[in-house]
Design brief:
This protein is of the alpha+beta class and about 80 residues long. It is built from 2 helices and 2 strands; from the N terminus they run ββαα. The protein has one domain.
């Protein structure tokens, strides 16, 4: 594949959930990530679409678009009581 370089730009904003047509929730505000991908090289449209499909399946993208379970624990450092 004649891919010479890739540039990815991500912008973050908060939007009202009611303004998000593709969101499940319609209350409060949600985080919006806008990703722009620039592919440089003599690529066919089919190759460009395949690279976009790959980007949609990358582990970071899949993590950010899935339900996230955050578990936090507090650990005492040396000299502190638990």
């Amino acid at each position: 594949m004649p891919l010479e370089s890739v540039t990815v730009e991500v912008r973050h904003s908060k939007v009202h959930a009611a303004d998000c047509a593709s969101c499940d929730t319609k209350e409060g505000r949600i985080d919006r990530l806008e990703r722009t991908i620039v592919l440089n090289g003599q690529l066919s449209e089919e190759q460009r679409q395949e690279l976009l499909r790959i980007a949609e399946r990358c582990p970071v993208h899949r993590t950010l678009t899935s339900k996230i379970d955050i578990q936090t624990s507090l650990v005492a450092t040396a000299g502190q009581q638990t």
